[in-house]
């Protein structure tokens, strides 16, 4: 899941395949993901993703449909190093106990809270059973290196496929919901 958008996005640990997802973007991805993003209630981002998004999206042309969406959507940021005020409008720092803060956000009425990227954050949420749905974009690529979403330390979970779309470039957009057991 490391550095899908740009060659220089995240070269940690010598990862040299940045920008790998760009050639696979197509109208099917935009048509499928656009409405999902438009229904987002708020975003929950880790520090690295927040800083990367803030460095890019506010500076893009306003006619890009993602620009107003990302600028206007409430962004909650999980970080132990950032301090408020955060520079991107509609951004709030989640301080203190992250699982408790996310649980409180989930208990509020409203639309879904969406996490984009933010692998470390997602793994923390998984360990605390705070992820209800996964929307995975599975690309027809194997690198053998790079940061992974489902790496060591992720607890077992049973998922149910609720939707899938395959693009003309071979990307599978798979939506899974966590099955509650017991």
TrEMBL record:
<dbReference type="InterPro" id="IPR024072">
    <property type="entry name" value="DHFR-like_dom_sf"/>
</dbReference>
<feature type="domain" description="Bacterial bifunctional deaminase-reductase C-terminal">
    <location>
        <begin position="29"/>
        <end position="173"/>
    </location>
</feature>
<feature type="region of interest" description="Disordered">
    <location>
        <begin position="1"/>
        <end position="20"/>
    </location>
</feature>
<protein>
    <submittedName>
        <fullName>Dihydrofolate reductase family protein</fullName>
    </submittedName>
</protein>
<feature type="compositionally biased region" description="Basic and acidic residues">
    <location>
        <begin position="1"/>
        <end position="15"/>
    </location>
</feature>
<dbReference type="InterPro" id="IPR002734">
    <property type="entry name" value="RibDG_C"/>
</dbReference>
<dbReference type="Pfam" id="PF01872">
    <property type="entry name" value="RibD_C"/>
</dbReference>
<dbReference type="InterPro" id="IPR050765">
    <property type="entry name" value="Riboflavin_Biosynth_HTPR"/>
</dbReference>
């Amino acid at each position: 899941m490391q550095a899908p958008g740009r060659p220089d996005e995240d070269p940690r640990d010598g990862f040299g395949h940045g920008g790998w997802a760009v050639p696979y973007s197509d109208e099917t991805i935009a048509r499928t993901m656009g409405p999902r993003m438009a229904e987002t209630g708020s975003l929950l981002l880790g520090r690295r993703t927040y800083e990367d998004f803030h460095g890019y999206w506010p500076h893009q042309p306003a006619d890009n449909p993602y620009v107003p969406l990302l600028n206007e959507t409430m962004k909650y940021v999980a970080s132990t190093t950032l301090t408020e005020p955060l520079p991107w409008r509609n951004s709030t720092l989640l301080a203190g106990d992250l699982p408790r803060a996310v649980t409180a956000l989930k208990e509020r009425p409203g639309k879904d809270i969406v996490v984009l990227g933010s692998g470390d954050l997602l793994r923390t949420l998984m360990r605390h059973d705070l992820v209800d749905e996964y929307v995975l974009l599975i690309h027809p690529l194997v690198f053998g290196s790079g940061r992974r979403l489902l790496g060591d330390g992720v607890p077992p979970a049973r998922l149910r496929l609720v939707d899938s779309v395959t693009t003309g470039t071979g990307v599978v957009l798979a939506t899974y919901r966590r099955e509650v057991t017991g």
